[in-house]
Amino acid sequence: MKVAVFSLHKFEKDYLLSAAKGKHELILLEPQLSLTTAGLAEGCKAVCIFVNDDGSKDVLKKISALGIKYMALRSAGFNHVDIKKAYELGMRVARVPEYSPYAVAEHTVALMLALNRKLVVAHNRIRDLNFSLNGLTGFDMHNKTIGIIGTGKIGKIVAEILHGFGCRVLAYDIMQDDIWANKYGVVYGSIDNVCSQSDIITLHAPLTEQTKYIINRDRIAKMKKAVMLINTSRGALVNTKDVIIGLKSGQIGYLGLDVYEEERGLFFEDHSSDILQDDVIARLMTFPNVLITSHQAFLTDTALHNIAVTTMENLDCFEKGEECKNELMP
């Protein structure tokens, strides 16, 4: 099957080609899928897209008119695709529901440790031959209270890692797993209770209408002074402008982000020669207690291998007309 692979990155190319095993003809395209670039899929039967590609109804209508029957997502999240419209157009869509929860969980904890022990600041000082320790004081993670919002597979692994550090772990999720919680000493509570008691809050919830801006000005006000906030899930879980206000007031003492609400067209690309047009992220970058990575948490060899293999398996099922366990339905 001929497949137009949009948003192709150098780091994933070899994994995709290896997983395809010659069964699919991959047309590797660096541009993101959009109304402007949709025509690049002409002559293909399927498109393969990444997290910041445009799967809105207008784009779906355009690629459907070109003969696209299948869409394979190289991601777990699918809020960038209008699944209902795809279904109406007779287009089958599948995702990669799990690639490596350990990759994201470990990156989450890495952000916590780097912020806490001011590793970036310390590294930059050493490069300037400044070996002073002034201003680099951190805190013991042991006995700190960690709040985990969302205890799916990633959230659970984060909790288990932090349990090993000797942290007290609180959690919020609409679906509680009491057996797991008892095993690791996790205490479920309301989201406001978790936010008000935690020294560190980390987000691992999906983005839905109910969770959009789950972290906002009112909720930030209920948090402990100088709280650490980590988001490696979905950018729009937090109201970034409210977070900036919290940083300016000192209510938020540390911020670690691997996702950003307006990351499309920014993350995954080299803008080192450009004038940054996004004033919000530009303001975030001025804070010394903010650490941003560009949607990097998933980026391990294990995850890239699993994403590529599952993506090709999804395309195999579509081509054979078989049921696909990873298919998305409206």
User: For the record, what is the CATH homologous superfamily label of the largest domain?
Assistant: NAD(P)-binding Rossmann-like Domain
Mean pLDDT, all residues: 97
Strand line-up in the sheet with most strands: 8-7-6-9-10-11-12
For the termini, the CA-CA separation is: 25 Å
Sequence stretches where pLDDT stays below 50 over 5 or more residues:
none
Order of helical and strand elements: EHEEHEHEHHEHEHEHEHEHEHEH
Class by alpha and beta content: alpha/beta
Number of domains: 2
User: What radius of gyration results from the CA coordinates?
Assistant: 21 Å
Q: How helix-rich are the residues, as a percent range?
A: 25-40%
Shape: globular
Tally of strands: 12
CATH class of the largest domain: Alpha Beta
Largest sheet: 7 strands, parallel
Beta-strand residue percentage: 5-15%
- Per CATH, the architecture of the largest domain is 3-Layer(aba) Sandwich
Looking at the chains present, what oligomeric state does this protein adopt?
single chain
Topology:
Elements: E1 2-5, H1 10-20, E2 25-28, E3 46-49, H2 57-65, E4 70-73, H3 83-88, E5 92-94, H4 101-116, H5 119-127, E6 145-149, H6 153-164, E7 168-172, H7 178-184, E8 187-188, H8 191-197, E9 200-203, H9 217-221, E10 227-231, H10 240-249, E11 252-257, H11 279-284, E12 290-292, H12 301-320
Parallel strand pairs: 1-2, 1-3, 3-4, 4-5, 6-7, 6-9, 7-8, 9-10, 10-11, 11-12
Helix pairs in contact: 1-12, 4-6
